[in-house]
Amino acid sequence: MSSHVARVFSGVQPTGNLHLGNYLGAIKNFVALQDTHPCLYCVVDLHAITVFQDPAELRHNTREVAAAFIAAGVDPKQHIIFNQAQVPEHAELAWVLNCVARMGWLNRMTQFKEKAGKDREKASVGLYVYPNLMAADILLYRATHVPVGEDQKQHIELARDIAQKFNNDFDKPDFFPQPEPLIQGPATRVMSLRDGTKKMSKSDPSDLARITMLDTPDEIARKIRKAKTDPDALPDTVSALDARPEAANLLGIYAALADRPLAGVVDEFAGAQFSKLKEELAELATATIGPIGAEMQRLMDDPTGVDAALADGAARARAIADGVMQDVRAAVGFLQTPAP
Ligand code: TRP
């Protein structure tokens, strides 16, 4: 049995256009976990630069993710929000883990293959070892639970393998815990409003494909009204949704925003036209995410409060990271000056 205390860690990349998929797939779950676990939520700027980021935009986007955490209800006093670059131990542990993880393990990562595309020779080296940095993020705090979307499950499995190999290599069976992925609810995969078979994405060329966290209530309602539909009335079973991607997406979003099981929502709208669902979804979405966007905007208008929360979070994260890193250095055999 593991002797590690429960602790939640998760990260969101500051790459702009934070959208409904990020909210329902990640941030909303972060908020819920605060009641049961001590939580660290990290704006992973070191991950973001695996693909070139304009420096001014990176600064802006880092603040924007932090503002989203706070506006959605993460309490930066009870828990810890911070950006990765302010805690240099992330990069230090990542280096050690680069030397623990095997090439063969990383070669299996499907997200690298997708992101690097055809011209793998031109991908940054950072993009390739990114899963090791993600393992370092988690293990630096000996986190036990990691809320993530389905697409990150393979990276958590890698983190488990790395933790186990480290523990074996250095003969410290309980050094790092085995982190568990927490994959939430039906709407962890929010799809494009223009194509129910494609994920909602920050980079979709059509603005109508996504609802962003900073959309005004009017924009939110307009995008839902224009969402793609199919010609039939809404189905009366969840299984019928397999063949109805647009209906599945809108009903799934409705269920997630309402905190209700999908089956109940399907029942409620069975036989109705899309227009009725859209009308009610627009109302629900503006009522739930509208105020979060407004609060984010307020925080962004003068980001000194956000910056202060990030600095305070980094100091508190570092206090934990420092202890673990001392243990890592000792385990690996690095000479270090004892604390004064
Ligand atoms: N790789 C994650 C993503 O792109 C973000 C991330 C970085 C993360 N480090 C993490 C998530 C640690 C969970 C735990 O979504």
Q: What is the topology?
A:
Layout: E1 8-12, H1 20-33, E2 39-43, H2 45-48, H3 55-72, E3 80-83, H4 89-98, H5 103-107, H6 110-116, H7 125-139, E4 145-147, H8 153-169, E5 180-182, H9 217-225, H10 245-258, H11 262-269, H12 274-301, H13 304-332
Parallel strand pairs: 1-2, 2-3, 4-5
Helix pairs in contact: 3-12, 4-7, 4-13, 7-8, 9-12, 10-11, 10-12
Bound molecules: tryptophan.
Residues 9-11, 13, 44, 47, 134, 137-138, 146, 148, 152 line the site of tryptophan (TRP).
Please characterize this protein's 3D structure:
The chain has 340 residues and is mostly helical. The protein folds into 2 domains: 212 residues, HUPs (Rossmann fold); 93 residues, Orthogonal Bundle (Tyrosyl-Transfer RNA Synthetase), CATH 1.10.240.10. The protein has 13 helices and 5 strands. The strands form 2 sheets. It has a 3-stranded parallel sheet with strand order 1-2-3. It has a two-stranded parallel sheet with strand order 4-5. Helix 4 runs parallel beside helix 13 and helix 10 crosses helix 12. The longest helix is centred in the last third of the chain and has 29 residues. The chain is globular. The mean pLDDT is 95. Bound molecules: tryptophan (TRP). The site of tryptophan (TRP) has 12 residues, from strand 1 and helix 7.
Key traits:
Rossmann fold; binds tryptophan; 340 residues; three-stranded parallel sheet
Beta strand count: 5
Strand content: 5-15%
Strand order of the largest sheet: 1-2-3
Ligand inventory reads: tryptophan
- Summed over residues and divided by their number, the pLDDT gives a mean of 95
**Radius of gyration, whole Å:** 21 Å
Shape: globular
Distance between the termini: 35 Å
Q: How many domains, in number, for the residues?
A: 2
Low-confidence residue ranges: none
CATH topology assignment of the largest domain: Rossmann fold
Q: How many alpha or pi helices?
A: 13
* Helix fraction by DSSP (H/I, runs of at least 4): 40-55%
